Amino acid sequence: MKLKTFVIVMSSLFVLLIGGCGAMGMSLSQGQAADNVAGATDARAPGAPGADIAPVTGACAADDRRQGLPSNLAPEGQSRKTHLTTRMQNVQSQVEEKFNGKFRTIGGWRPADSISLDHPCGRAIDVMVSGLGHQANRQQIADGFAIAAWAEQNAKVLGVHYIMFQQCIWNVQRSTASGCGHVPAGVDGNGWRSFADRGSVTQNHDDHVHISVW
User: Fold this and answer.
1) φ, ψ dihedrals at 50, nearest 5°
2) CA dist list (Å): 77 to 9, 45, 114
3) Residue 7's pLDDT is what?
4) 188-to-150, 155, 170, 193 alpha-carbon distances in Å
5) Which of 193, 172, 190 is nearest to 182 (CA)?
6) Alpha-carbon distance 125 to 35, whole Å?
7) Per residue in 17-50, pLDDT tens?
8) What string of DSSP letters covers 114-179?
9) In whole angstroms, how far apart are CA 67 and each of 61, 62, 104, 146?
């Protein structure tokens, strides 16, 4: 082989090799990013119950178990001050830290609820991204799904049971659901599914992200 031909061939091989390494590097980086998202643990686990936590009531403990409480967790009592459980207080404090400016207010305990005992038992918060009864705009929906995605990705660490937003629901028992049509483009809707129209903006969770823990 003539020297000139040899140089051309080797140069071509070098270009192909560099291009191939670049492509492999990009694929590896993308794969690592996907793994990091899937295994995200940028959340703190709840600490020991505070001194103001009252013993769990029989009704709340029974309701927790009825919903399928995992064997590694126990029903929790509620704070005498906030009426939230230790797990729920932990989630709320981190939402406030991580998403400051992305929501308006956070509602938690209420004495009664016609749908479930999650709020009365201190196991749920409502992160309001728009005014009560007002449909969220595009930016508020994006902010709400950012909060929801964080809670979903860190569900194991936080003890999250289920999340609702924009007439979509995600829970640990059905985390492989096929998706929800209300999830906007650009947001990963895997694991989410639609729930029936409840007749109002608030009941459909169009104005707030609902997060429940065990």
Assistant:
1) -75, 170
2) 74, 17, 21
3) 39
4) 12, 16, 12, 12
5) 193
6) 29
7) 333 333 323 222 222 222 333 345 689 999 999 9
8) SS-STTTTT-EEEEESSSTT----HHHHHHHHHHHHHHHHTHHHHTEEEEEETTEEEEGGGTT--B
9) 10, 9, 30, 26
pLDDT at position 147, please?
97
- What is the model's pLDDT at position 187? 79
132, 207 contact by CB (below 8 A): yes
Angle, CA 184 vertex, CA 182 and CA 185 arms, to 5°: 135
Record the pTM. Answer: 0.80
Length of the chain: 214
The tokens describing 83, both together, are 């009426």
Calculate mean pLDDT across residues 182-211.
91
**Taking residues 81-101, what's their average pLDDT?**
98
Q: At 182, which amino acid appears? A: H
